[in-house]
Amino acid sequence: MSRKELLMAARRKGEKISGHLAECQECREAVSLLAMFDMAGRLPLPNAGEGMIQRAASIAMVKPKLGRVKEFLAELIFDSWTVPHPIGVRGEGALEHRRIRFQSESTIIDFRAEQKQTGWNFIAQFGIESVSNSILIAEKLKLNPDKHGICQWVGKKPPRNMMLLVGDKIIKLPELTWKKPRKK
Question: Cα separation of 111 and 125, whole Å?
Fold first, then answer.
């Protein structure tokens, strides 16, 4: 059967099948498919615009994977500025030093800061299995720890944002505020 004959047969729903359609399984399947989608006699769909075709093609393209990076958020487990100091050390000197400890999974990050007249001295130590492939990022500064997992640096102001890169893991530390607690 021709295409036109198949379309006409699809439009005649419910009529008794006779002639060639009664004998040819392939034509009967084509007619039932055309009748099911009810497109017989309608105008063809317009082609998609070039921009839409390119967009669809770019979605379908396989993009190279950079590897799976796991991102974790460390939990603040100790901050010396939030703990009341013993009576003998409640002076201004106690506020010039800060010790903070973070934990994420099996990684512990111990951070110490000491305020001097010219700026701040910082020490960070990581309790991780392999320090050779780790980097501490404090604001824009990238630091590689020594073989014991210790980083030391000096800055004019303390970092608010830090993260530790360990192999394929990123451990983000909560944002720090450096406003000293008020005296009561």
Answer: 7
Q: How far apart are CA 128 and CA 173, in angstroms?
A: 15
Is 0.70 topped by the overall pTM? no
Q: Is residue 137 part of a domain?
A: yes
DSSP per residue over 4-31, as a string?
A: HHHHHHHHSTTPPP-THHHH-HHHHHHH
Angle at 101 between CA 95 and CA 105, to 5 degrees: 165
Cβ(138)–Cβ(38) under 8 Å?
no
Q: For residues 160 and 74, state if they share a domain.
A: yes
Mean pLDDT by 10 residues, the chain (184 residues): 80 76 86 73 72 77 62 90 69 70 88 91 83 85 89 91 87 86 60
